[in-house]
Write a structure and sequence with these properties.
heterodimer, A: Non-ribosomal Peptide Synthetase Peptidyl Carrier Protein, Chain A, B: alpha/beta, Peroxisomal Thiolase, Chain A, domain 1, 2 domains, two-stranded antiparallel ribbon, 15 helices, 15 strands, globular
Chain lengths: 82, 406
Amino acid sequence: MTREEIVTQVNDLLAEEFEVDAATFTPEANVKETLNLDSLSLVDLVALVQQTYKIKIPVEELRSIQTFNNLYDYIESHLPNE
Amino acid sequence: MKNRVVITGMGIWSCLGTSLDEVRDSLYTGKSGIVFNPERKQAGFRSALCADVALPDLKPFIPRNMRQFMPEEAQYAYMATRQALENAQLDLDYIEKHEVGIIYGNDSVAEATMHALDKFREFQDTAACGSGAIFQSMNSTVTMNLACLFRLRGINLTASAACASGSQSIGLASLLIRNGLQECVVCGGAQEANMYSVAAFDGIQSFSVREDDPARASRPFDRDRDGLVPGGGAATVILESYEHAVRRGAPILGEIVSWGFSSNGDHISTPNVEGPVRSLELCLKNGGITSSQIEYINAHATSTHIGDIREAQAIARIFGDRNVPVTSTKSQTGHEMWMAGASEIIYSMLMMKNDFIAGNLNFENPDEETACINVVPERQETHFDMFLSNSFGFGGTNSTLIVKNL
């Protein structure tokens, strides 16, 4: 997947799952704030990434994902080789 | 001095409709809510008959992060409770300033539990279950969700008593109010309607297989009955002390006169006569009511061979040859299980308030054992002021309520 494809797909998934307009997603926006994630619903972000990309985000690494760009980077760098 | 307990609000989400008016009309016209569901047949069900219950859309009412905690039956219960609170003229502002409790019947969350554990097993990771899974898969999911959504701060309790859960919840709430421990309690029963919730039930061959004629499959007390039809949804009644209701100017619809209960202490699935008899007797005794005062009986009868016989015999034992009209609204709804004890109070209330008794659908011929009671096959236009409602469940749990018109 190209970076552009990842961004588009991730945004679509997040918009649907968390019921937030994708137009509010900008690369430097804070993921938790934009998606209204609390400590419980953050688990749904982990589950969504795991179920879609087969990528497990460990708790300690989750803390480093602050912006949408961080999230795209994480997924891009952990995608299994095709 | 004990408090009188009154009903001030009702709400329902059922296969007969999703508003009180719609359900009243369905009862009046004898509509059946039973359908044949091909998906169940394909999945391996012996009987693909079930009630047709609409899934509500909660998006306009509840934000995503709270909906995550709600399995199917909590969604039904939310819709029923919204209606009931509105019907009782209880708004959030009043609830925030007063202690209102909740006791609701529920006895399974099969589908939500299954989905969560499927994810866990597929990904071998507990986080894959998602944030809502733990709250969705607990038996008390309905009361935990509704208590948070409606800001209820009194008793917060789930009654799990198999197919008597809804009735026991009303009985327990009435007991607390009668004794002055609560002034107002939201109560009711909820039942998931998805196929996973009843797959094991189908497996013990309890369901009617009259698949070519769904509307005629549920036929309580009829000679040719061949099993129950599973249903679902939710029903909520608002109970409060008479004084509390008068004080806040609430509409008073009826009075919970009495609650009776018993356990068979016998077989896990085969009912007996003695257990239900003791529940009926206790209910009459607790309310200081004689059997001659009961003008209508809403039977538990689910359309199973042995269950209907035992209930008919129990009713005959108490009511003798008084010829009290008896019907089972399960002939229209199928068996609403954890919800049934509450929904059948609402069905009976709607009939009492509108001067009719809905006919027991498909009652064409009694058998030798059910001929001892007066099952009413056709709708009767009649006024009545006091009814009795039976609910019995697996494990021999029995609950009986008597309600008076006000």
